[in-house]
Amino acid sequence: MRKSSVQQKKDNKANNHFEVAVLGGGPAGMMAAGRAAELGAKVILLEKNDSLGKKLLITGKGRCNLTHYEFDRVKFAEKFGKNGRFLYGALERFGVRDTLNFFQSRGLNWQVERGNRVFPREGDAENIVQILLGYLQEGRVMILTGSRVIDINLVQEGTEQFKIRFSGGVVSAQKVIICTGGKSYPQTGSSGDGYSWAENLGHTIIEPTPALNPVETSEGWVQEAQGLTLKNVSLQLYQNGRKCDERFGELLFTHFGISGPIVMDMSKSIDNHLRKGKVKLLLDLKPALEFKQLEERIQRDFQDFRGRMLKNSLAKLLPASLIPVIVKLSGIEGEKKVDYITKPERRQLVHLLKELELTPIRLLGFSWAVITSGGVSLKEVNPDTMASRKIKNLYFAGEILDLDGPSGGYNLQECWSTGYLAGEGAAKSLKRI
Ligand SMILES: Cc1cc2nc3c(=O)[nH]c(=O)nc-3n(C[C@H](O)[C@H](O)[C@H](O)COP(=O)(O)OP(=O)(O)OC[C@H]3O[C@@H](n4cnc5c(N)ncnc54)[C@H](O)[C@@H]3O)c2cc1C
Questions:
Q1: Helix ranges (DSSP H) in 229-288
Q2: Which of 204, 225, 402, 428 could staple 375 via S-S, CB 3.0–4.6 A?
Q3: How far apart (Å, rounded) are the C-alpha atoms in residues 380 and 362?
Q4: Which of 55, 165, 184, 196 to mutate to test the pocket of ligand 1 (most atoms within 8 A of CB)?
Q5: How far away, in angstroms, is 398 Cα from ligand 1 center?
Q6: List of domains in the chain
Q7: Is the CB of 48 under 6 A from ligand 1?
């Protein structure tokens, strides 16, 4: 039977109207859409890429460090600095334990690895994406990939309806959850589109800057050590002769400078200090040994290597690719026999091993930043529901918020927690019309 044109229009309208529209299909968006649908809402998820979770797939080098094994929400939240308190409500509602239960109940075995990082025991990030897709399908979420959202408009002030214009047309929704992420790794789709929508709707955007970012240094010698990972080293940040920050752990040399967990975690602090003036980094290659202990250790090594050249006598102390670097920086001839190394020369070697200087010039920028610092001002978002305090029925979740944590699973947990809460907040406050 053919439908009348009036009926057809009504049907089209019904088909294009959703109770909840989630914009952005990353971890926060998938969790938000899944939770809203689980509570019975009619949900649409719009994603501009051809598939969901493109960035999620590269997390943890493809293995996905899905959370951090820390059940104390205060301890967890303090890793996000002064803004961390905002997360108390979300972590209370859907914390680390809930995340682990969520994935485990859907067939994922997980394990805690070094530094309390949680990874899938078998499988990888693909399994995480598949579990989230299953969650969306369970709730019959309408998923539209290849659908770039262009803008969001209030149909009329006070009508509580949004019109969402996207590359494939227009849909309307009672509630909108913006989950478009930050600006880091734009090649994965996170190009900061949500900031301008939020701004147009009256929100304040704290300037987005790259965080968890590799650092370019001025020393040319880093290229010789390129690819070398140093474990258990300490990195100290100095400005105007004052020690301002310190990290211990793993560092990687690259062709442009330094990277690896301790550099990434310190990068925000390096950036803040660079804005004020010159910064010096001191790398301690032997943090377990005091200066004197290290000098004695070198003396013992040189006894063992009697008659050999300096360049062939540092293998017990340094990885092969760093030996020529340290010898060159010491100013001592590499061919000099260790028997003839003077006390000042030995002290110079100790100094280099304990205080190897690196001069940061800049962070590598959004293209290589793991996360974006800044975003939608937290003052304008209700931490118990993720609802906007400016626009009724608007919600935010994930990296678009002014929240950034260190590496180690903190940032994905922020997405799971805020996404879940936003989905729940939106669905529970629906007016059934
Ligand atoms: C290399 C790398 C490794 C990482 N590893 C880890 C890790 O192991 N553990 C951890 O905790 N964190 C890790 N992170 C951080 C983590 O990936 C982010 O915190 C997380 O992906 C943010 O999720 P999100 O949903 O807020 O945003 P995103 O993941 O950025 O997703 C946003 C989505 O919105 C879509 N979108 C944007 N604009 C539009 C538009 N106009 N229309 C429609 N869709 C749009 C994007 O295409 C994207 O799919 C890593 C990040 C990187 C870059």
A1: 261-274
A2: 402
A3: 31
A4: 55
A5: 8
A6: 5-210+372-428 (3.50.50.60), 214-364 (1.10.8.50)
A7: yes
Q: Answer yes or no: is the C-beta of 152 below 6 A from any ligand 1 atom.
A: no
Mean predicted confidence (pLDDT) in 388-415 = 97
Whose structure tokens read 């400078």?
A: 257
Residue among 68, 180, 372 whose CB has most ligand 1 atoms within 8 A, to mutate: 180
Q: What count of other Cβ atoms lies within 10 Å of the Cβ of residue 227?
A: 10
Estimate the crossing angle of helix 125-138 against helix 27-38, to 10 degrees.
30
Tens digits of residue pLDDT in 273-288: 999 999 999 999 999 9
Between the CA of residue 387 and those of 39, 195, 366, what are the distances in Å? Answer: 17, 16, 27
With CA atoms as reference, report the closest residue to 283 among 358, 216, 376: 358
For atom 41 of ligand 1, the residue with the nearest CA is: 149
Q: pLDDT at position 15, please?
A: 76
Q: Quote the CA–CA distance of 136 and 33 in Å, as a whole number.
A: 7
What is the C-alpha separation between 151 and 193, in angstroms, rounded?
A: 9
What is 325-338 written as a DSSP string? HHHHHHT--TTSBG
For helices 96-105 and 410-428, give the axis angle rounded to 10 degrees.
Answer: 80
Q: Are 404 and 265 in contact (CB under 8 A)?
A: no
CA angle 269, 254, 333 (to 5 degrees): 110
Query: Does residue 11 have a pLDDT over 70?
Result: no
The per-residue pLDDT for range 20-55, each reduced to its tens digit, is 999 999 999 999 999 999 999 999 999 999 999 999
What pTM was estimated for this model as a whole?
Answer: 0.90
Q: DSSP 3-state assignment of 170? A: strand
Residue corresponding to tokens 């996404």: 419
Q: Which residues contact 159 (CB under 8 A, 6 or more apart)?
A: none
Counting Cβ atoms within 10 Å, is residue 399 exposed (0-12), middle (13-18) or buried (19+)?
buried
Q: Are strands 43-46 and 142-144 parallel, antiparallel or unpaired?
A: parallel
